[in-house]
Amino acid sequence: MRQSFKESADPSYGSLHLPRIRAAMAAQGLDGLLVPHEDEHQNEYLPAANDRLAWATGFTGSAGAAIVMADRAAVFVDGRYTIQVRAQVDTSLFEICDLVVGGVPAWVEANTRPGQVIGYDPRLHSPDALGHLRNAAIRSGAILKPVDPNPLDVAWGADRPPQPTAPVRPHALDFAGEDSVAKRARLGEGLVAKGAEAAVLTAPASIAWLFNVRGGDVSRTPLPLAQAILNRDGSARLFLDPVKVTPELPAWLGNGVRLETPADLPGALAELKGKVVLVDPAQSPAFYFDALEAAGAQVLRGEDPCALPRACKNPVEIAGSRSAHVRDGVALTRFLHWVATEAQALLPDEIEVASRLEAFREEVEGLSDLSFDTIAAAQGNAALPHYHPTEKTNTRTAQGSLLLVDSGGQYPDGTTDVTRTMAIGTPSREMCERFTLVLKGHLALAALRFPAGTTGSAVDAFARAALWSRGLDYDHGTGHGVGVFLGVHEGPHRIAKAPNSVALQPGMIVSNEPGYYKEGAYGIRIENLQYVTSPRTIPGGERPMLGFEALTLAPIDRTLILPDLLTAAERDQLDAYHARVLAEIGPHLDGPVRDWLKAACAPIAG
């Protein structure tokens, strides 16, 4: 469970690996090769064996891409990683480009010539992403060519880590709240309504949720790498490496699920000839569309049928998540007490901070793993939203600075993700002002009431308004979905500036995490997980309104709050949250930690 702080990649990867990749490209007659971050399952967090982008470039962020040409190369990242990428990638070998504005398609259009052949692995690109690339290639005159094998895999060769083979185990109904038979029948009815006879599922989270199983193939996430075909009658075929099959699994899956191997998958796709088959063009690789069309199936493009039902947690999952957050909150409160007391004199470094928090979590009942490697960021490192400390970058806390810690745990009954920003010594007036502005945005979103049909993009501005009023902003989304003993990042909903057509619905868990980052100086983020509540009538109102209820329970650093910047309603809201933290977390603590929590949760003076 303990996270490693060793560098997993470095800028030398470019000089070491680019020649090998180019040699493998040349052997296949390619002028270029597309290297996405995503793997065969479109995972965000990858097994080491599938982290092709990191091996090729040295960049280890959770989103990005690269293109390798015979005489040049480029890496594409979004706003979260603009600083990190320059520290990890040899910029004499790779041009650094924006992943969002223009992205890879714009680069292909501007930098390739007529007749050049650009290879792509159809197992790594979704049809949606591939469509934009094809259009760009048409405009430049270049040719996109599917490759098999992937030249990068050939170049990686014997150095490549083995594929993960973690055992797949049942996920108890006490945690899932609905058995797999009922889920499959419900989704089967949805297929009938869409005119589909079957659906191909490739997302590990969908497979884990649908069959009520959990694995360990993906970093910090209890997911099995597998594929499945769901039929409209609720029966299914699950394609799973036999080495992962535990003794209890066949009986748990039942007679309605045929357990097969990945080698059986191509034949199973061929058997869908003449059938209408639903596949998600945003989640499933182009390989499946090509294979089904070649087999004579009629491909129906549509959203993964598991995505929205998985996002709308049932009452058992919400209750489990609340329980997990209480236990996690106890560990987090002990950690915050340590930061507020001992750490003020010790001035620990980032690795010591992350290790101490991990030790507190390890004392919690039911902890399975971290939900991601802890972001413990001191001083200027906190201005990097997705920074992770390493032995090379490890920085010591300092008086008059801020410490940002973003962390979480995986429990059988829930997944946690929480960020707290804490003062080390006496913070500056500017730090406190901007912390309070972030807090105002956090409180505004938490208090929001909204009608059915409202999307996350429609509410994002509430979290930014206080910052905007001072000419400030942040370059990441405000909220992401979170699973229940699944991924810490989960769709299809989100809260962000970017348009999103998925309405917020009861039972959805979503983060609330506005921030502010001053490059080279400090960073601020306040994050709670919250879930969407059922519509309720507001006295005097005409329409029932949905809202949010906090799951995360941990105090917010009072020393960074300027009360005069808060309205009376905001102070009351913060006081009510802290009163709840004390009521639910306090009984699990004693001695100095409980005394500290009582003071940390005291009402804010006006």
Protein model, in words:
The chain has 606 residues and is α+β, with helices and mostly antiparallel strands. It has three domains: 12-159, Creatine Amidinohydrolase, Chain A, domain 1 (3-Layer(aba) Sandwich), CATH 3.40.350; 169-310, Creatine Amidinohydrolase, Chain A, domain 1 (3-Layer(aba) Sandwich), CATH 3.40.350; 312-598, Creatinase/methionine aminopeptidase superfamily (Creatine Amidinohydrolase), CATH 3.90.230.10. It contains 20 helices and 27 strands. The protein has a six-stranded mixed sheet, with helices on both faces. Strands 12-11-10-8-13-14 form a six-stranded mixed sheet, with helices on both faces. Strands 15-18-19 form a three-stranded antiparallel sheet. Strand 3 (73-77), helix 3 (82-88) and strand 4 form a beta-alpha-beta unit. Helix 14 crosses helix 16 and helix 17 (429-447) packs antiparallel against helix 18 (456-468). 49% of the residues are buried. The mean pLDDT is 96. One of its GO terms (molecular function) is metal ion binding. This is X-Pro aminopeptidase. Residues 19-148 form the Creatinase N-terminal domain. Keywords: Aminopeptidase, Hydrolase, Metal-binding, Protease. Belongs to the peptidase M24B family.
